[in-house]
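Hi support team,

I've been running sequence recovery on a batch of backbones for a student project. Most finish fine, but this one hangs at about 90% for roughly twenty minutes before it completes. I'm not sure whether the input is malformed or the queue is just slow. I've pasted the structure tokens below so you can try to reproduce it. Let me know if you need the job ID as well.

Thanks,
M.K.
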């Protein structure tokens, strides 16, 4: 098992307080699972990430997706920098203050220079898909 995936496996059922990403530490989701090319997390909707009507802010959803997909890249254990070239988000339903959401990332295609990845955000019981995102990432070997 590579070091990146090994780190994620050691963090299952823990919050992101040890994440190298300042945004991930601030969001502070709980890691539920990790495999090469995929992570699963839960997050409680806090006031700081809601909009004026108390629903999970669309910009916060995009940030959650971008950082979760970024974290997923490290499950490969490669010495590389993964730069987001493009993000697209489709919004379907809302979540409100104190709701728990379920976040799952996946990789559609991993090339040597370009990766196509995605992220689904569900209500915690996985009954309602809240948003679906897709990203294109550039791989820069270190």
């Amino acid at each position: 098992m590579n070091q990146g995936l090994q780190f994620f496996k050691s963090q299952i059922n823990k919050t992101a307080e040890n994440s190298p990403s300042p945004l991930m530490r601030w969001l502070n989701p709980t890691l539920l699972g990790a495999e090469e090319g995929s992570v699963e997390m839960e997050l409680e909707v806090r006031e700081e990430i809601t909009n004026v009507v108390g629903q999970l802010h669309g910009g916060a959803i995009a940030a959650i997706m971008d950082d979760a997909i970024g974290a997923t890249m490290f499950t490969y254990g490669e010495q590389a920098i993964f730069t987001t070239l493009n993000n697209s988000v489709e919004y379907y339903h809302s979540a409100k203050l104190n709701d728990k959401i379920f976040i799952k990332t996946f990789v559609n295609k991993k090339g040597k220079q370009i990766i196509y990845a995605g992220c689904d955000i569900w209500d915690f019981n996985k009954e309602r898909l809240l948003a679906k995102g897709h990203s294109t990432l550039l791989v820069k070997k270190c």
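--
Follow-up from support: It reproduced on our side and the slowdown came from queue contention, not your input. Residues 81 and 140 are 5 Å apart (CA to CA). No action needed from you.
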